[in-house]
Amino acid sequence: MDRHCEEPQATRQSRAGANRPRLLRFARNDDGHVESSSAFPARERGAALLTVLLLVAVMAVVSAAAVERLTLATRLAGSASAMEQARHFAMAGEALALRRIDTLLAANDSQVTLDGGWHGRTFTLPLPGGSAEMRLTDGGNCFNINSLVATSQAGESGGIAPPRPLAIQQFTALLQGLGTDRATADRIVAGAVDWIDADQSAMPNGAEDSAYAAASPARRTADRPMASAGELAQIAGMTPALAQRLSRWTCALPADDLSPINVNTLLPEQAVLLQMLTGNRISPAQARTALAARPSGGYGSVNRFWADPALGGIAPPGDAASQVRLTTRWFRLETNVRLGDVTLGSSALIDAGEQGQRARVVRRSWGSEG
Fold first, then answer.
1. Would you call the peptide bond into 162 cis, given omega within 30 degrees of 0 as the criterion?
2. pLDDT band at 169 (very low <50, low <70, confident <90, very high)
3. What is the DSSP letter of 147?
């Protein structure tokens, strides 16, 4: 029995040979050089080569991804650093503008004129690795959207800020002066009032939250003064084209005062604002002629301005006469900083305050303001 159960010796030797590690064999050829040959079969040597190639390919992909991420991280860090540096340069430009405004007001506290070439002129400031361009303008020569609602009188009217009729008339006149029909103008003006006031009672032709809930996208009224004239684009009845056209003539000052128009700095191309003050009772040509004929040193007095023959003896109605100023309280500074591949724009609203106060930045926005 044991003899029959024993495994044949040839089989045991074959199995032992299969488990024995295959070694490289070395031999000398006819030239005397040593050559090696593998004991692996040819098909197994191909599988080993394929495995090595796959490992090399995976390592190459991983290395390329790591290098790409490292490059991206380096670029992001460099851009963030340059952007932060650009912000500081922009604020340094604001400091220079504040000093310029203080000097301008100290030179003549009775009126601000175009003397000195400060208005609308682009100043270029060389910087390490780039430059900054700054442009200072009169920030009050515009229609103040926030004057539509007398928010400062909220306490006098039981907590609800009342609409201001004169501002409503002026905004309507401005829209009509820009070619808007009366029906559309009335709707936009009423919508702007409802956007600012704190109640939910819509004005005639206006819109409150219930109207905007059905809009696309749905939204709600702000129920507060506007932070930017760009909010007008959200008003019911407003079109993108009209919002773009209005952006040049409107502003959102941090006060509900009627628009303070300085006739010493108002340019002939801004004649539509002078038309607005008179309720469009003067023509665009009359307004441009009056502004183009302004004395080089300014009008000196408001009465002298309204006595200009080009205006034909037409004066603004009611309290609108008090809007005409010879000085400027609000200034706007536009800054554009370029550092290498980084470009940063900013807009700052500067309040020169009352007489004797120093100018200060009251609002700043990065990028172009809508």
1. no
2. very high
3. G
Does residue 24 register a pLDDT over 70?
no
Cα 195 from Cα 189, distance rounded (Å): 10
Q: Are 139 and 349 in contact (CB under 8 A)?
A: yes
- Residue 217 within a domain: yes
Structure tokens at 14: 């074959």
8-state DSSP, 172 = H
The token pair at 62 is 């991983």
Task: Look at residue 367 and tell me if it is in a domain.
Answer: no
pLDDT digits (tens, 9 = 90+) for 286-334: 999 999 999 988 999 998 998 888 888 887 777 788 899 999 999 999 9
CA distances to 131, 217, 357 from 93, in Å: 11, 39, 20
What is the phi-psi region of residue 134: left when phi exceeds 0, alpha when psi lies from -120 to 50, beta otherwise? beta
State the residue range of the domain holding 209: 145-248
- Name the phi and psi angles at 150, rounded to 5: -80, 75
Which CATH number fits the domain that encloses residue 208?
A: 1.10.40.60
pTM across the whole model:
0.76
The mean pLDDT value of the chain amounts to: 85
For residue 294, being part of any structural domain is answered with: no
For the chain, how many structural domains are there in total?
1
